[in-house]
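Same chain as my last thread, 357 residues:
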Amino acid sequence: MSDLVVEHVSVTHGSTLAVDDVSLSIRSGELVAVLGPSGCGKTTLLLAIAGLLPVQEGTIAVGGRELSRSGRTVAPEKRGVGWVPQEASLFPHLSVGENIGFAVPGGRGGAGRGAARAARIAELAQLVGLGELTNRAPNQLSGGQAQRVALARALAPRPELLLLDEPFAALDTQLRTGLRREVAELLRDQGTTSVLVTHDQEEALTLADRVAVMHDGRLAQFGTPEEVYQQPASDWVASFVGDVVELTGTWRAGRVLCALGSVEATAVGFAPADGATVRLMLRPEWIVPRPDLLAQAAAGADARVAAISYAGHDAMITADLVDGPSVLMRMAAVELPSVGDDLRLAVQRPGLAFAAA
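reply #2:
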């Protein structure tokens, strides 16, 4: 078992508390994304797990073996933890195979061990799709190929845990999308317990089994991608993890009366009294045109399409409500209205009600 358990961990940089009482339990073979904006403490947490920073409070354990606590830190090279950095950081004077082999155990000690080492290098190179490039120099590789070498090197010693520090951030969009999907599939096939640090919401939601959202050094929410996106634990998480439409309304027995009509809603983090003013948050794709409601004055709201931002597979539509502000709608590109079209809008799933600021 190579599960990771982080219990009530706090880490400081000088006098700054960078990670504040964070607890995570990551199952063996699971890929977890630590998501958050710059300065939220996500990389500091990764460094503490790697043993590169001490913890002031709490404990870190992998596979039941305690690696960190206040006043005690197992050295990074003795943790059984692999690291894939943002930049590949390959040795320029070594070939692809030699870069991978640098981290393969048993580099010395007889022909038999040398043959096993060569076989392991070949296995890893094949695993990351570079089986024909082991003799190539790093300066002959593309950015994606270099990151594949870094991944193979990190996997070489068969780590109990693999840490990935924004490894796709420096790549162009098309390459990043393809490579990160391949890497996630590879790690799952290998059964490697992995922690991916990222500030990219799409990356976290599409790759991870679970997402840990960090804010100001604290864990704001930990759940599946669906839970974090559909059921955010706070208004901050809702706004950070995806696009939101925010409207002011009045709470009435599980519904919010607002510019979009009477919208079913779930109160998050508080229990509003009837008549209380609340903030209703919706995802743009929850707002849909409903021609069947045109004759029902009490249902939905009238709007006119003001702008369309086309993205190929879908589009973001700005619609001006007749009796309210503008709202965003996300629709599949095959069924788009035109600018100037009149629509009757409705909300197709319960919204999220937060306390008024």
